[in-house]
């Protein structure tokens, strides 16, 4: 691979991980692995300035912007911190700043690095005015209503001496105990647990329901005061003042002098952090003096006067009991290491995913091996290696199964993928039960009272063989299942009845179409409008939808080409399940998203009629105009748009958008 190709690959990968982390709150890799990718890209870009790109992920700090909140520009950009991974790295940083400050004495403040989500609070006349997330560093979401529910955040300051207007930055965290409770509740409700307290905190802060936010028990620690003419000469003084106004500042904050004290602080905190009620992933070192901070200044991404030190992920060694193979609702087989229970970062680990055949082979595992388990940043445990010296004599190598452990069907491997799949979609119990469980989940059809066990029992009794069968369930059938009484049976049937009102976008997600996750389903539903349109679309047409790649498009087309799935759709329709978005003319005015924008519509469209587009423009605050002028904001162009119009729009530099792009503007 050439350096240019590697740069492209890294940029694509990092963009995807940024999206997973900041938008979806579902990281696939540890922070450390992410930082390593970013570091590699930074280095390659330094070596090859000729491949510079203003959109490279090295040029930004990530975005967590959701559309549900108003966006606000930060007064001071919210930057990130340079990372270091060893005491030597931190020592090198101390030496660098001492050199840059021409041998002046440098005092350093050591702090915990809280593992939550950053927040900027603005106070005016001692009262909380606004709370904004980090967003892309320049603009963030106004989450004031949610932040007000956090009990440790002062709404009115106490003490004295606070500036009339200032900004304070800190970290919103979900304490471990609240995290455990929340995940237990989610498991009981059949919802996916949060991978770590950081994701839980970020996800909670973005809820549109402040009451639920309040219930979850968020907390916040503060570490950075900003404002004009602050009456302090250093960070430690400022933090001491901040603490006296009612903000939570960690007691661990310590003034340090010289490398020896810095090194001892690192060692002390590494053992201390396990006892803290909140998750931390490292330390932060800051130059104390504001004058020195000013002299050192900032790079494009982070202050030179501060550095983060990441703790090494905790590891433990434990014996492999056996490898089992889980079967997911989409038929994917996941190897899982079942372990002798071992404590690690506050929990007991008994199972760890081996992900897929390639990863398992690379680890080269033998029966009864001593395995190294790691939990980085509290992410789900993973196996990182084998202690070969401890291998049992005569042990056999662990191999991937060739047949499905549930139904015995020979597994197939999809071209270009590391995963093995059981192709017996309609006969393999865990797949069917998994699809039923998914269908009834809270974010899908939200049918209460059917958890994993009930789904399995419904299948075994022969009552529910696919999701459409749920709509034929009767009270007397439910009563034959252990644990059901009249009341609980009626609750399930009520839930099934209510699910008929669930919007199409959720029903689409509930169907378990491979590659169609929640966000994709939402996008597709809004663009195509109904299951009938979707079923009639070609792979090419599907690919024209934003975010739908060739794999997803093919998967959707194959799904609906299958007579079994078509029959499920027809039975859902007959049961009264919603399979289209509300008609444009039925729905009341929806938004002001297009306020001040004028559109000229031209050509023939595939997804909606011209009149429907006109209505949509008006209902979202836009204006329809007949002919193109310099005042036109957009030309919405279908097939066969007249060449004269096209030429005019081009000349005037007016953006010409197609129907998918237009529909995406409304999301
Ligand atoms: S200082 C200009 N101090 O870590 C940078 N940040 O990786 C000001 N964080 O965006 C940040 N604990 O969300 C600072 N004691 C601490 C911190 C801390 C956690 C977060 C913060 C920041 C991120 C950078």
Short note summarizing the structure:
37% of the residues lie in helices and 19% in strands. The protein has 24 helices and 22 strands.
The total count of strands amounts to 22
Identify the quaternary structure here. Answer: single chain
Q: Strand-residue fraction?
A: 15-25%
Bound molecules: 2-(butylsulfanyl)adenosine
Structural class by secondary-structure content: alpha+beta
What spatial form do the alpha-carbon principal axes imply?
Answer: globular
Please give the count of helices: 24
Instruction: Round the Cα radius of gyration to an integer and report it.
Output: 28 Å
Instruction: Kindly report how far apart the N and C termini lie.
Output: 39 Å
Unreliable residue stretches: 60-67
Q: Care to describe what's here?
A:
This protein has 667 residues and is of the alpha+beta class. It is globular. The structure holds 2-(butylsulfanyl)adenosine. 2-(butylsulfanyl)adenosine binds next to β3, β8 and β11.
Give short descriptive properties of this protein:
alpha+beta; 19% strand; 7-stranded antiparallel beta sheet; 37% helix; binds 2-(butylsulfanyl)adenosine; globular; single chain; 22 strands; 667 residues
Write the layout of secondary structure elements.
Elements: H1 3-23, H2 31-47, E1 71-73, E2 83-84, H3 87-100, E3 107-114, E4 117-124, E5 127-133, E6 139-141, H4 144-147, E7 165-173, H5 176-188, H6 197-205, H7 210-216, E8 219-226, H8 235-244, E9 254-257, H9 258-272, E10 280-287, H10 290-296, E11 306-310, E12 314-327, E13 332-344, E14 347-353, H11 357-363, E15 370-375, E16 382-386, E17 412-413, E18 420-421, H12 429-440, H13 452-460, H14 475-479, H15 486-498, H16 504-510, H17 518-528, H18 531-536, H19 539-543, H20 550-561, H21 563-575, E19 598-602, H22 610-619, E20 623-624, E21 634-637, H23 643-652, E22 656-657, H24 659-665
Parallel strand pairs: 2-11, 19-20, 19-21, 21-22
Antiparallel strand pairs: 1-6, 3-9, 3-10, 4-5, 4-7, 7-8, 10-11, 12-13, 12-15, 13-14, 13-18, 15-16, 17-18
2-(butylsulfanyl)adenosine is lined by residues 79-81, 111, 113-114, 118, 171, 223-224, 284, 303, 306, 308.
């Amino acid at each position: 691979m050439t350096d240019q190709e590697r740069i492209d690959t890294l940029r694509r990968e990092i963009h995807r991980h940024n999206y997973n982390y900041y938008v979806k709150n579902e990281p696939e890799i540890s922070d450390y692995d992410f930082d390593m990718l970013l570091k590699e890209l930074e280095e390659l870009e330094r070596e090859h300035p000729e491949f510079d790109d203003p959109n490279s992920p090295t040029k930004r700090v990530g975005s967590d912007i959701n559309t549900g909140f108003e966006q606000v520009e930060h007064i001071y950009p919210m930057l990130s911190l340079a990372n270091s991974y060893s005491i030597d790295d931190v020592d090198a940083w101390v030496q660098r700043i001492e050199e840059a400050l021409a041998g002046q004495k440098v005092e350093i403040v050591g702090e915990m690095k809280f593992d939550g989500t950053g927040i900027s609070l603005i106070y005016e006349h001692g009262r909380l005015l606004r709370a904004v997330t980090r967003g892309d560093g320049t603009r963030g979401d106004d989450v004031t209503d949610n932040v007000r529910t956090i009990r440790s955040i002062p709404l009115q300051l106490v003490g004295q001496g606070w500036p009339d207007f200032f900004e304070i930055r800190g970290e919103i965290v979900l304490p471990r105990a609240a995290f455990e409770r929340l995940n237990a509740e989610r498991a009981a409700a059949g919802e996916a647990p949060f991978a770590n307290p950081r994701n839980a905190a970020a996800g909670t802060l973005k809820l549109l329901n402040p009451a639920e936010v309040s219930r979850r028990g968020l907390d916040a620690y503060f570490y950075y005061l900003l404002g004009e003419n602050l009456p302090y000469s250093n960070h430690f003084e400022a933090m001491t003042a901040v603490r006296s106004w009612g903000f939570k500042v960690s007691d661990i904050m310590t003034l340090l002098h010289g490398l020896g004290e810095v090194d001892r602080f690192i060692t002390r905190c590494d053992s201390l952090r396990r006892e803290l009620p909140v998750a931390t992933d490292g330390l932060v070192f800051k130059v104390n003096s504001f004058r020195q901070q000013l002299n050192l200044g900032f790079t494009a991404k982070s202050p030179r006067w501060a550095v983060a030190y990441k703790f090494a992920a905790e590891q433990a060694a434990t014996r492999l009991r056996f490898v089992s193979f889980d079967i997911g609702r989409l038929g994917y087989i996941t190897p899982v290491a079942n372990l002798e229970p071992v404590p690690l970062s506050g929990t007991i680990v008994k199972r760890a995913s081996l992900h897929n055949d390639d990863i398992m082979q690379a680890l080269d595992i033998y029966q009864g091996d001593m395995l190294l388990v790691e939990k980085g940043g509290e992410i789900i445990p993973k196996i990182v290696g084998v202690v070969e010296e401890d291998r049992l004599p005569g042990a056999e190598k662990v191999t991937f199964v060739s047949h499905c452990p549930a139904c015995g069907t020979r597994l197939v491997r999809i071209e270009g993928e590391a995963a093995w799949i059981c192709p017996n979609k309609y006969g393999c119990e865990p797949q069917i039960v998994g699809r039923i469980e998914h269908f009834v989940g809270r974010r899908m059809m939200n049918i209460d009272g059917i958890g994993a066990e009930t789904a399995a029992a419904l299948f075994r009794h022969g009552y529910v063989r696919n999701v459409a069968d749920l709509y034929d369930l009767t009270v007397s059938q439910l009563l034959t299942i252990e644990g059901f009484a009249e009341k609980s049976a009626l609750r399930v049937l009520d839930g099934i009845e209510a699910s008929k009102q669930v919007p199409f976008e959720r029903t689409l997600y509930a169907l378990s179409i491979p590659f169609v996750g929640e966000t994709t389903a939402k996008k597709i539903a809004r663009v195509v409008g109904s299951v009938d349109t979707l079923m009639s679309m070609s792979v090419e047409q599907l690919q024209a939808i934003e975010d739908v790649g060739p794999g997803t498009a093919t998967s959707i087309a194959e799904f609906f080409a299958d007579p079994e799935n078509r029959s499920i759709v027809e039975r859902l329709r007959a049961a009264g399940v919603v399979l289209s978005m509300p008609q444009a003319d039925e729905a009341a005015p929806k938004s002001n998203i297009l306020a001040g924008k004028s559109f000229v519509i031209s050509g023939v469209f595939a997804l909606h009629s011209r009149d429907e587009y006109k209505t949509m423009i008006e209902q979202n605050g836009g204006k329809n105009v007949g002919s193109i002028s310099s005042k036109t904001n957009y030309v919405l162009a279908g097939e066969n748009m007249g060449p004269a119009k096209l030429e005019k729009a081009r000349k005037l530099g007016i953006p010409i958008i197609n129907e998918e792009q237009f529909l995406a503007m409304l999301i």
